[in-house]
Amino acid sequence: MSTTWADDNRRYTAAAFRRVRGFLVDEFGSRDDEIDRELDELEERMSSAPALTTLEAAFGLSPFERDVLLLCAGVELDEGVRIALAEGDERRSVPAPTFALALAKLPHAHWSALTPAAPLRRWDLVEVAAGRRLTEAPLHVGERVLHYLAGIHYLDDAIGMRAPTADVALSDSRIEMARAAAEPLADASPAAQPVVQLVVQHLALGEAVAAELAASVGLAAGVLPASDLPIIPADLRDVARSVEREAVLAAVLPVVLVDESDADVAARLADEITGPVVIVTRTPVTLRRSDLRVVVPASNSEERLQTWATALGSAADDLPDEVQRAADLLDLDPLAIRAAASEFAAVSGDDDAAAAANRFWTLARDRARPRLGRLAERISRNATWDDLVLPDEQKQTLRDIAEQARWRGLVHREWGLGRDTGEGMGISALFAGPSGTGKTMAASVIATELGLDLYRVDLSQVVSKYIGETEKHLAEIFRGTEGAGCVLLFDEADALFGRRSEVRDSHDRYANLEVSYLLQRMEAYEGLAILTTNMRSALDPAFLRRLRFVVAFTLPDEPSRAEIWRKVYPEMVPREDLDPQLLAQLAIPGGNIRTIALNAAFHAAARGGDVTMADILRATRAEFVKLERALPEAQVRGWT
């Protein structure tokens, strides 16, 4: 009759308990040899080692330490051990075993077995009750170890470890990558286990690769989010020991998921652990241990398109252009794609085709929206082409930029243009001109036309006097927005270009390097990146050649100012006898016109009347005071 591993493990553990019971009641001799033969026979026929044998080998237990562990576990699992302990007690109750009892009854006894550095206490296999002398303190086996000896396997959620949850189908190339990364773990000696760092764009994808890596060495993945780890060193050391113990008990490979803010605590945990560890991170973590870094490429547009099609089902057939666009522009991981598809299906109603397409795109874009903190702000301004007052030539160039951003996927991917240049599919542009001439509004118009978010980066806040810090901030911005479906607007680029001059010393040379680094990242960026500057002359012609578009914004002439004044107020704003032609006599940029118009509207609202020329004149005087400029009275004559 065939038996299972669980059945044989129970028999093996029961025989081991009988052996310990014999020591307690002083039964030695032939019976002891008989039990040893039974243990050998059971171990020989079992498909894998008994739980006790695995514990003994993995934690380096001496024969005495193994028997102490059995003594403690026997109180919970074996009636014979309980009876033997009770017979030695005057009250005939079952006392907890003590170290004094173990030293007196078990063979090969040694005092060092119960030191904090010895395996029993180092790995929390046995717990020593507080408040008594060490030899008389009750000894207990932990619940997790007790269940393991009984053949019950599970992940201990007390330390926050879980099974992988990322249901991500891996491509053949990523499976091969995972198996290749597993080879150093399989080949390394126990004393020189490396840390494998999987550098990924999306943690869910990295988790799936880590699970495949673990399977390649015959283990499951035990996932531990670094955000759940304690920051106090002593507590972190306790967690590290528990993680290593769990790696043995549950046959798992520890996998630590790291967000940027958790990198330090994850590194300290990996350095505390002596066994193999996998770190899944967006940016490499600095360790004291040797490590193997594997960069896992993000899903490409074809893979994302297939995931969208599977997640949406038949709905994908009704949204072919939008689904293709989402696959091209939004670097979402499979979990986010499935979540967006579920949300789209859950609120699907009687939308017409255009409304459904817009709702789908909004859901997908919102899932990809980046978190950039203080480095960038999202500008919510739904400006249109009608709001933009520019000469026809400049306006056409802006339309060309939007056109290229919309169709870059077709031209680069399907038509194959630009594949061999080594550059990204993105577009870089420079908007140059005085303040208030419409550079930010033009970027907003393009973003609205494309249905993308616009993020404004104030370069004056990003540039640092410390060498390397500017590049670090820029890298964080590009990394955070890559594949997020947004337009990047680098405003106040004068803060960077203004530092560039003829190279006279190392600081000048480094300023040039910062400009070059920014342009390099813009070229590689798979999106639309726009620079604005008031100092086009500060740019080296060699830098200008690296930008695909350069748009000059000039101060509006009088007819353009009149058009801006005509468009500045929506239809619902009450007005009285406003004369755009008369207002256009004041030579100011469009940005100042909009500020004046807004402030004048507040004056009218507070007065309870319509916006009048007098309100505009009052707001104009305040604007010139703010600008510390004298108002040319001749240009405002006749306004009241």
Q: Looking at CATH, which topology of the largest domain would you report?
A: Rossmann fold
What fraction of the residues are assigned to beta strands by DSSP?
5-15%
Helix content: 40-55%
Q: Residue-averaged pLDDT, rounded?
A: 86
| Biggest sheet character | 6 strands, mixed
Question: Nutshell version of this structure?
Answer:
Helices cover 50% and strands 10% of the residues. With 640 residues, it is of the alpha/beta class.
Distinctive features:
27 helices, Rossmann fold, 50% helix, 640 residues, 6-stranded mixed beta sheet, 5-stranded parallel beta sheet, alpha/beta, 5 domains
Write the layout of secondary structure elements.
Layout lengths: L4 H20 L5 H16 L5 H8 L4 H15 L1 H9 L11 H7 L13 H4 L3 E3 L10 E3 L1 H7 L22 H16 L7 E5 L3 H14 L3 E6 L7 H17 L2 E7 L4 H10 L4 E5 L9 E5 L5 H12 L7 H10 L4 H13 L6 H16 L8 E3 L12 H23 L12 E6 L6 H12 L2 E6 H4 L6 H13 L4 E6 L2 H4 L8 H19 L3 E6 L7 H4 L4 E4 L5 H10 L12 H4 L6 H18 L5 H15 L13
Helix pairs in contact: 1-2, 1-4, 1-5, 4-5, 9-10, 11-12, 13-14, 13-15, 15-16, 17-18, 20-22, 26-27
Description:
The chain is of the alpha/beta class and 640 residues long. The protein has five domains: 5-149, no CATH class; 157-295, 3-Layer(aba) Sandwich (Rossmann fold); 301-368; 385-552, 3-Layer(aba) Sandwich (Rossmann fold); 558-636, Helicase, Ruva Protein, domain 3, CATH 1.10.8. 50% of the residues lie in helices and 10% in strands. The protein has 27 helices and 13 strands. It has helices at 5-24, 30-45, 51-58, 63-77, 79-87, 99-105, 119-122, 143-149, 172-187, 203-216, 233-249, 263-272, 301-312, 320-329, 334-346, 353-368, 392-414, 439-450, 459-462, 469-481, 494-497, 506-524, 541-544, 558-567, 580-583, 590-607, 613-627; strands at residues 126-128, 139-141, 195-199, 220-225, 252-258, 277-281, 291-295, 377-379, 427-432, 453-458, 486-491, 528-533, 549-552. The strands form three sheets. Strands 8-10-11-12-9-13 form a six-stranded mixed β-sheet, sandwiched between helices. Strand 5, helix 12 and strand 6 (277-281) form a beta-alpha-beta unit. Helix 9 crosses helix 10 (203-216). The N and C termini lie far apart (109 Å). Residues 499-503 have low confidence and may be disordered. Keywords: ATP-binding, Nucleotide-binding. GO terms for molecular function: ATP binding; ATP hydrolysis activity. It comes from Microbacterium oryzae. Belongs to the AAA ATPase family. Residues 425-557 form the AAA+ ATPase domain.
